[in-house]
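User: Sequence in, structure out. Go.
Assistant: Echoing your sequence, followed by the structure tokens.
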Amino acid sequence: MAKENLRIGIILGSTRQGRVSPQVGEWVKGITDKRADAEYEIVDIREYQLPFYGEGNGEEPGSKAWQQTIDRLDGYVFIVQEYNHSITGALKNALDSAYKEWNNKAAGIISYGSAGGARAAEHLRGILGELAVSDVRVNPTFSLFTEFEQYKTFKPSDLHANNVTAMLDQVIAWSGALKSLRKS
């Protein structure tokens, strides 16, 4: 029997106009396209038009599609921007819009902001723990001051690709190990 490839979602954590997360996500996707260890896809929470948590009944087309997407993935790479020392409201809402679909999976975090998005990454780690998602150690960070031209155009230094590769290696290892828990 052929081994099935892992499926990893690159989740864009912002929905606002003028966001730069799609640029970061495409850059990460370019790195993953050179790997043969999993199937990687960009997952844009904006496309699901999720109702605020508690305002829907979970049966809305966007909510169902979101839960199905999260469920079929084996692991995640979150592209997280820091807003007011935390993650975006849209990302928190998306995380809350599923539960069992997240369980026993792995995640990597790529963050950006004035302090590299470090505070957002730490907040996300706490939320992921409650959702039974294991986050990996390597957390590539990008400064708005040095990695974005005029805060709008993503221009990462070459050295960051090594950190992303190390994070992806961990996500793949953990996603594979945790998959056995979901099959039992």
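User: And one key feature?
Assistant: The radius of gyration is 16 Å.
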